[in-house]
Amino acid sequence: MALDFVAGCLGGAAGVLVGHPFDTVKVRLQTQSASHRLYRGTFHCFAEIIRKESTFGLYKGMTSPLIGLTFINAIVFGVQGNVMRVIGEGSILNSFLAGSAAGAVQTLVCAPMELAKTRMQLMGMGQKVKTRKQKDVKNSLDCLLKIYRKEGLRGCCRGMYLTLWRETPAFGVYFATYDIICQVLSPKDPNEHIGMLPLMFAGGMSGIASWMSTYPIDVIKSRIQADGAGGKNMYKGTLDCFVRSYQAEGWTVYTRGLNSTLIRAFPVNAATFTVVTLFLREMRPSQPVDATLSKPHLYEK
């Protein structure tokens, strides 16, 4: 159990380092105004951030997920593993249910973390480094403290239930997809490890499937969490955000930033599962550990 927690944290850290620049681009594209667009698309957004804010602009707000991932991965792998042991292993449905439970529980940490990350990613948007004023926020914790002083505890929980709606089914799809692909690609000999390329493919595709399953919710969540960052609230609530976003930009608004998200999803989750597997292989050399993070092998041959 403890090794799964450690492996998950290491894998999560690898995923954040690989994927955070793509996440910054996703948030910028999701939250920019329809009437005043700074970015034409994913690659233009990348280029503009680097040109105006330097490469470090792509890593704004990374402290929050790096700190939070320790708790999030401990929760996810702990809950998923324990639920699987209770309801039974070897079933794709059970894998989905266990993943959904894990996604729901970790929302308590994930939502405030993403709130701070989103606010920091939007800092200095469209401004050149040399002309930008001094930072108003020092780091993610300082960001949350300022939100708390201004909006109270409710402000720190902004987007909480939207995160719950996103994470619950998304983590179910995530673990179920990974299990399905690992089952298909597993070697015939149960004592053999799954190859690194199939393992990376399974991790990458599970990430893509997970994001595609709930992406429209993520768009609304980003807008709700970004709302009020400039001192003025645009939306009265979730429903108002949903309706007004559609009225202003049509249904395509719910796919805003999807390209950068899917581009990010594959390498991030491939890196996450690869690091987890390498760690567990090293710590448990006598056990095949490729199939899932919660148990040594997915299906008995």
Describe the structure in your own words.
It is built from nine helices and no strands. Residues 289-301 have low confidence and may be disordered. With 301 residues, the chain is mainly α.
SSE order = HHHHHHHHH
Tell me the major beta sheet.
Answer: none
- Total helices: the number is 9
Low-confidence stretches: 289-301
> Percent of residues in beta strands?
under 5%
- How much is the average pLDDT? 83
Overall 3D form: globular
Portion of residues within helices: 55-70%
> Compute the gyration radius: what is it?
20 Å
Report the count of strand segments.
0
What is this structure's SSE topology?
Elements: H1 2-31, H2 42-53, H3 63-87, H4 92-121, H5 140-156, H6 160-185, H7 196-226, H8 238-249, H9 258-283
Task: Provide a compact summary of the structure.
69% of the residues lie in helices and 0% in strands. It is mostly helical. The longest helix is centred in the C-terminal third of the chain and has 31 residues, at 196-226.
Give keywords.
globular, mainly alpha, 0% strand, 301 residues, single chain, disordered C terminus
